Amino acid sequence: LLKNYPELKEVFVVGFPDPRLGEEIGFVTTAGEKIVSKILADAGSGKIPNLSPYETPKAALSLKETALPKTSTGKVQRNKIKVKFGAKLSENARTITASSNFSFRVIKPDEVAALEQAVRINNQAWGKHIESSLDEFTSRAGNGILIGAFDKSNQLCGTISALRLTSEQLGKLQKWVEITGNGTLNTTNLKGDCLLCVAISTRPEHKRISPDKPSSKIKFSKEEFKKYLESDQDYVIRFHRKPKGGFTKGAKLIKILPNSRPEDKDALGFNLLMEYPALQRKPKINPDSSCGTRLIEAVMLYGFNHNLKKVYVLTRPAQASQYFS
Predict the structure, then answer these.
(1) Which of 262, 278, 274 shows the shortest CA–CA distance to 313?
(2) Using DSSP, how many helices (H) and how many strands (E) does the chain show?
(3) Inter-axis angle of helices 112-126 and 134-143, nearest 10
(4) Beta-ladder partners of 149
(5) 108-128, pLDDT tens digit by residue?
(6) Stated pTM of the model
(7) 70 pairs with which residues across the strands?
(8) Cys bridge to 105: 53, 55, 95, 170, which one at CB 3.0-4.6 A?
(9) How many other C-beta atoms can be found within 10 angstroms of the C-beta atom of residue 207?
């Protein structure tokens, strides 16, 4: 780090807690936020010369000189840096972006309280036919990427679940259970160059009532269904088609998956694969957008920071049952 960044006068590299690896690499410096941001951006893109991925720092802190723990002779105590700032480095490593009213960060399997909140929000938003469990969300946090939106009081307001896949794998998608490992995200491929979002849930404004009618009693043709999708009458499809992240276009529909999730009676068992614009530049987070929109933008930013090409969503025509009934 000293060799590659002359602006650094001193830097202290320490381990910080990580639930999967035990420890990850972070550093503390007095050089200022600007150089810290540059180093972390280069680290996320793999652009620090002579550092392998496992040697690359995942978090950092810029401190005042007086904040560094020192001996009576003025020598910096590295072991005390680790104890004093390890938790803050861990939090910074998980944070994707933050604004005055929300922070968006990766939730890990050790965050039981946040995971319990995530399950409650998910089950309120999705209805009784496709409820999730704490074990399922804990697995998502360990296997894939679970991003949470937290308000100023650190209360969870929504989550988005995603996994990494290759472009080739995306082309073979059919059933929700197979794609997501039945919601556990154990199907994630760490070498994948794309992000696939498979579930998004925010605190619902009104209680959702799911129909009890079996989908087999509702008849319609392929042409009628495609016409419904094109009409923008479905609020979920309309949400994904709106531009996000500072891009001029939103997501486009690229594949219809019939009978992908039969238990989803609202959507008549259908899933839809939609593709957001390629991550050719850094996405922006709109501070005035809804929590759901900013969760998608946070995923885009996560993908950009990790050198991934595209963001896809495996979504649902949530109002199909109402429409065809």
Answers:
(1) 274
(2) 10, 11
(3) 110
(4) 104, 158
(5) 998 999 999 999 999 988 877
(6) 0.83
(7) 76
(8) 95
(9) 8
**Burial letters for 146-162: b for 16+ Cβ neighbours within 10 Å, e otherwise?**
bbbbbeeeeebbbbbbb
- Among 205, 204, 187, 207, CA closest to 196: 187
User: To the nearest whole percent, how much of the chain has pLDDT over 70?
Assistant: 96
Comparing CA positions, the residue from 248, 250, 233, 241 lying closest to residue 317 is: 233
Closest CA to 87 of 8, 158, 11, 19: 19
Burial of 79 (0-12, 13-18, 19+ CB in 10 A): exposed
Least confidently predicted of 157-166, 271-280, 282-291, 310-319: 282-291
d(CA 177, CA 182): 4
Q: Tell me the two tokens of residue 203.
A: 């605190």
Query: Which residue matches tokens 């652009």?
Result: 47
Nearest CA among 285, 258, 262, 286 for reference residue 271: 258
pLDDT tens readout for residues 205-239: 644 545 445 445 688 899 999 999 999 899 999 99
Q: How far is CA 121 from the centre of its chain?
A: 16
| Alpha-carbon span 180 to 10, nearest angstrom | 45
- pLDDT, position 19: 72
Q: How far apart are CA 29 and CA 31, in angstroms?
A: 6
Contact 314/165 with Cβ under 8 angstroms?
no
